[in-house]
Design brief:
By secondary structure, the protein is an alpha+beta fold. The protein contains one helix and five strands.
Length: 110
Amino acid sequence: MSKQVIIFLFVALLFLAACRSDYEKEMEEVFSTEKNYAEKVYEIKLDEVNSEIAVYKFRKFISITYTPVEENEEIVGVYKRNHESDYDRMDDESGINGNEPVIRKAILID
């Protein structure tokens, strides 16, 4: 391989590593926000149910999906990044419909 290819691969790996850390931080922030929302609105402790966090293209949307133990219906909280790079909860799932996430994280409770 030429030096240019090796340098390109190295830079690409560094970029991906940097993006991953941003994803983790933002996923944790949104999870914390949804945790408070779930306790107030649904009286659910999000730490006690299985959930999945998904990040969509360019971190524009992050969703959290969970199912309360007593119910069969999934709850999906969708957050959209605003101009200040914070996330606001949306009223519906229209921002993610038809889109595949770029990263998913499952949180399984035993």
